[in-house]
Amino acid sequence: MISKKKQIITLGDIYTAVIAVRAGSKRIKNKNIQSFGSSNLLIHKIRQLKRVSKIDKIVVTSDSNEMLKMAKNEGVEIQIRPVEYADEKTKTFGEMIEFVVSNIKTDYVVWTPCVCPLVDENIISLMIKKFKEEIVFSERYDSLVSAKLLKEYIWDKEKPLNYSIEKHVKSQDLPNWYTIINGCFISSKINMLHNKFCYGHKPYMYKINKIQSIDIDDEYDLEIARIIYDKLIIKKE
User: Fold this and answer.
1) How far is CA 99 from CA 52, 79, 91, 92, 192, in A?
2) Which domains, from first to last, does the chain contain?
3) Which has fewest Cβ within 10 Å: 19, 84, 99, 213?
4) Is 236 exposed, middle or buried (0-12, 13-18, 19+ CB in 10 A)?
5) Which pLDDT tens digit goes with each residue over 48-105?
6) % of the chain surpassing 70 pLDDT
7) Residue 235 banded pLDDT, cuts 50, 70, 90
8) Confidence of residue 5 (pLDDT cuts 50, 70, 90)
9) What phi, psi does 43 have (nearest 5°)?
10) Do residues 153 and 163 make contact, with C-beta atoms less than 8 angstroms apart?
């Protein structure tokens, strides 16, 4: 019997990028289409992905007619997502993943939320390259995720988790812990459907820096990302 990983290795080199957006958002109203750069977060991500040569197709999946229209105007494919797959109550996240990914025709999926606008085309291109090296041509990992290296003193409610108070260590000598960042997740379609998640149980942690890892969850994150992006654009000019 051929293992799943052996099957995955024989697949072609074709990638579809998915941007999943929805009408509702709890902390920032219409978060996915908040203004950013010369457009908004959704369009900004679409245009970044268009500049990634290894991506063959871009699909925007949403319950929002407004967002689907924006995607269509940008020339990418759209998937109308029924509200039960977007309200975060009726269907589970896993069921949403299954619904979205089952309609994808390519072998690999690049899941790219638009809430990390500083994860740009250069980073995504490098992530795809690393995915091929570490997952497609190797059996060490099953997926690849954007992550931030965490070198901080971590406690739960009762005790330290990554160090001992009896023996102080410098922060740089703490063990490598990672925070998963909603920048980019890459996996085979087979594994996404099997796991009902955008990455697997043995992900390769692709490290991105503090600036790149800004993940927009509230107004403060959004404003910081805008300021940094504007400065980066001015610097390029």
Assistant:
1) 25, 10, 10, 11, 11
2) 4-236 (3.90.550.10)
3) 84
4) exposed
5) 999 999 999 999 999 999 999 999 999 999 999 999 999 888 999 999 999 999 999 9
6) 93
7) low
8) very low
9) -65, -40
10) yes
- CA–CA distance, 188 with 199 (Å, rounded to integer): 9
pTM of the model: 0.90
The per-residue DSSP string of 72-140 comes to: HHTT-EEEE--GGGTSSSSS-HHHHHHHHHTT--SSEEEE--TT-TTS-HHHHHHHHHHHIIIIIT-SS
For residue 10, the SS3 value is: coil
Provide the pLDDT confidence category of residue 137 given band limits of 50, 70 and 90: confident
Estimate to the nearest angstrom the gap between the alpha carbon of 172 and the chain centroid. 27
Residue 1: predicted pLDDT: 36
C-alpha distances in Å from residue 217, one per residue of 12, 22, 34, 188, 236: 36, 14, 12, 27, 27
Stated length of the chain: 237
Give the up-direction half-sphere exposure of residue 41: CA atoms within 13 A in the CB hemisphere: 28
pLDDT for res 4: 39
- DSSP symbols for 165-188: TTB---GGGS--EEEEEEEEEEEE
